[in-house]
Write a structure and sequence with these properties.
It contains 4 helices and 6 strands. The protein has helices at residues 3-22, 50-64, 130-136, 148-151; strands at residues 32-40, 46-47, 65-78, 81-92, 105-117, 120-128. It has a 6-stranded mixed beta sheet. A hairpin with a 5-residue loop joins strand 1 (32-40) and strand 2. The model has no long low-confidence stretch (mean pLDDT 95).
Protein backbone atom coordinates (compact mmCIF):
# COMPACT_ATOMS: atom_id res chain seq x y z
CA UNK A 1 0.00 0.00 0.00
CA UNK A 2 1.37 3.42 -0.93
CA UNK A 3 1.55 6.15 1.72
CA UNK A 4 -1.27 7.95 -0.11
CA UNK A 5 -3.45 4.82 -0.07
CA UNK A 6 -2.68 4.28 3.62
CA UNK A 7 -3.68 7.86 4.45
CA UNK A 8 -6.86 7.49 2.36
CA UNK A 9 -7.80 4.30 4.23
CA UNK A 10 -7.23 6.03 7.58
CA UNK A 11 -9.33 8.98 6.45
CA UNK A 12 -12.17 6.65 5.41
CA UNK A 13 -12.25 5.07 8.90
CA UNK A 14 -12.70 8.52 10.46
CA UNK A 15 -15.22 9.78 7.91
CA UNK A 16 -17.32 6.63 8.30
CA UNK A 17 -17.32 7.11 12.10
CA UNK A 18 -18.25 10.80 11.79
CA UNK A 19 -21.11 9.89 9.44
CA UNK A 20 -22.35 7.35 11.99
CA UNK A 21 -22.17 9.92 14.82
CA UNK A 22 -24.08 12.45 12.74
CA UNK A 23 -26.74 9.84 11.91
CA UNK A 24 -27.23 8.97 15.62
CA UNK A 25 -25.94 5.45 15.04
CA UNK A 26 -26.17 3.10 17.98
CA UNK A 27 -23.61 0.70 16.47
CA UNK A 28 -20.34 2.47 17.13
CA UNK A 29 -18.43 -0.79 17.72
CA UNK A 30 -18.04 -1.04 13.95
CA UNK A 31 -15.79 2.03 14.11
CA UNK A 32 -13.92 1.63 17.40
CA UNK A 33 -11.29 -0.91 18.39
CA UNK A 34 -12.12 -3.23 21.32
CA UNK A 35 -9.31 -1.50 23.29
CA UNK A 36 -10.58 2.00 22.43
CA UNK A 37 -9.65 4.97 24.67
CA UNK A 38 -10.97 8.56 24.47
CA UNK A 39 -8.89 11.24 26.21
CA UNK A 40 -10.55 14.64 26.51
CA UNK A 41 -9.58 17.98 27.99
CA UNK A 42 -10.97 19.25 31.30
CA UNK A 43 -14.74 19.39 31.08
CA UNK A 44 -14.90 16.50 28.62
CA UNK A 45 -13.41 13.76 30.75
CA UNK A 46 -11.60 10.57 29.80
CA UNK A 47 -13.40 7.47 28.57
CA UNK A 48 -11.66 4.13 29.16
CA UNK A 49 -13.69 2.21 26.59
CA UNK A 50 -16.50 2.39 24.05
CA UNK A 51 -19.20 1.94 26.68
CA UNK A 52 -17.95 4.97 28.63
CA UNK A 53 -17.64 6.95 25.39
CA UNK A 54 -21.23 6.13 24.48
CA UNK A 55 -22.75 6.67 27.94
CA UNK A 56 -20.63 9.62 29.06
CA UNK A 57 -20.12 11.50 25.77
CA UNK A 58 -22.20 10.38 22.79
CA UNK A 59 -25.58 10.12 24.52
CA UNK A 60 -25.21 13.23 26.74
CA UNK A 61 -24.17 15.25 23.66
CA UNK A 62 -27.26 13.99 21.82
CA UNK A 63 -29.46 14.90 24.80
CA UNK A 64 -28.04 18.43 25.11
CA UNK A 65 -27.73 19.30 21.42
CA UNK A 66 -30.11 18.19 18.68
CA UNK A 67 -30.11 19.01 14.96
CA UNK A 68 -26.34 18.55 14.97
CA UNK A 69 -24.27 19.21 11.88
CA UNK A 70 -20.59 18.20 11.92
CA UNK A 71 -18.29 20.55 9.99
CA UNK A 72 -14.65 19.65 9.51
CA UNK A 73 -12.47 22.65 8.62
CA UNK A 74 -9.23 20.75 8.02
CA UNK A 75 -8.31 17.08 7.91
CA UNK A 76 -4.77 15.66 7.97
CA UNK A 77 -3.90 11.97 7.61
CA UNK A 78 -0.57 10.19 7.65
CA UNK A 79 -0.22 6.45 8.00
CA UNK A 80 -2.34 5.23 10.92
CA UNK A 81 -2.83 8.77 12.26
CA UNK A 82 -5.51 11.33 11.50
CA UNK A 83 -6.31 14.73 12.94
CA UNK A 84 -8.83 17.43 12.28
CA UNK A 85 -10.34 20.57 13.63
CA UNK A 86 -13.83 21.81 13.07
CA UNK A 87 -17.08 22.36 14.88
CA UNK A 88 -20.49 20.92 15.53
CA UNK A 89 -23.47 23.18 15.00
CA UNK A 90 -26.37 22.16 17.18
CA UNK A 91 -29.50 23.34 18.90
CA UNK A 92 -29.28 23.52 22.70
CA UNK A 93 -32.32 21.32 23.41
CA UNK A 94 -31.43 19.76 26.75
CA UNK A 95 -29.44 20.50 29.87
CA UNK A 96 -25.75 21.15 29.29
CA UNK A 97 -23.38 21.62 32.24
CA UNK A 98 -26.22 22.84 34.41
CA UNK A 99 -27.71 25.20 31.80
CA UNK A 100 -31.32 24.37 30.91
CA UNK A 101 -32.25 24.19 27.23
CA UNK A 102 -32.24 27.61 25.56
CA UNK A 103 -33.13 26.65 21.99
CA UNK A 104 -30.03 28.57 20.81
CA UNK A 105 -27.93 27.34 17.89
CA UNK A 106 -24.34 26.99 19.06
CA UNK A 107 -20.96 26.09 17.61
CA UNK A 108 -18.94 23.50 19.49
CA UNK A 109 -15.32 23.82 18.29
CA UNK A 110 -13.09 20.77 18.58
CA UNK A 111 -9.77 19.20 17.64
CA UNK A 112 -9.33 15.44 17.33
CA UNK A 113 -6.29 13.19 16.98
CA UNK A 114 -6.93 9.53 16.17
CA UNK A 115 -4.77 6.42 16.07
CA UNK A 116 -6.10 3.66 13.80
CA UNK A 117 -5.36 -0.01 14.48
CA UNK A 118 -6.82 -3.00 12.62
CA UNK A 119 -9.03 -0.66 10.58
CA UNK A 120 -10.75 0.88 13.63
CA UNK A 121 -10.13 3.80 15.97
CA UNK A 122 -7.91 2.68 18.86
CA UNK A 123 -7.16 6.02 20.55
CA UNK A 124 -8.78 9.45 20.31
CA UNK A 125 -7.31 12.58 21.90
CA UNK A 126 -9.86 15.40 21.97
CA UNK A 127 -9.98 19.07 22.86
CA UNK A 128 -13.44 20.66 22.90
CA UNK A 129 -13.95 24.37 23.60
CA UNK A 130 -16.69 24.06 26.21
CA UNK A 131 -15.84 27.51 27.60
CA UNK A 132 -16.92 29.00 24.24
CA UNK A 133 -20.10 26.89 24.26
CA UNK A 134 -20.94 28.13 27.75
CA UNK A 135 -20.32 31.71 26.59
CA UNK A 136 -22.80 31.20 23.74
CA UNK A 137 -25.29 30.05 26.38
CA UNK A 138 -24.74 33.19 28.45
CA UNK A 139 -22.30 31.79 31.04
CA UNK A 140 -18.83 33.36 31.42
CA UNK A 141 -16.76 30.60 33.01
CA UNK A 142 -13.91 33.09 33.44
CA UNK A 143 -16.07 35.63 35.29
CA UNK A 144 -14.81 38.50 33.12
CA UNK A 145 -11.17 37.62 33.77
CA UNK A 146 -10.44 35.80 30.51
CA UNK A 147 -7.54 37.24 28.54
CA UNK A 148 -10.00 38.75 26.08
CA UNK A 149 -10.18 41.48 28.74
CA UNK A 150 -6.60 42.41 27.73
CA UNK A 151 -7.50 42.44 24.02
CA UNK A 152 -10.56 44.59 24.65
CA UNK A 153 -8.71 47.04 26.93
CA UNK A 154 -10.77 46.16 30.03
CA UNK A 155 -7.68 44.98 31.89
CA UNK A 156 -3.92 45.48 31.71
CA UNK A 157 -1.89 42.35 31.10
CA UNK A 158 0.69 41.58 33.77
CA UNK A 159 4.37 41.81 32.88
CA UNK A 160 7.12 39.53 34.17
Amino acid sequence: MTPEDHAAATRKVILDMETALGANSNDMAAHFHEDFRWMGNVGCGTKADLSEFRNNWQLPLRAAFTERDYKTDQFICEGDWASCFGHIEGTHSGEFMGVAATGKRVKIHYMDFWKIEDGRIKDNWVSVDFAAVMSQLGVDVFDGKGWESFDEGRAVPPKP
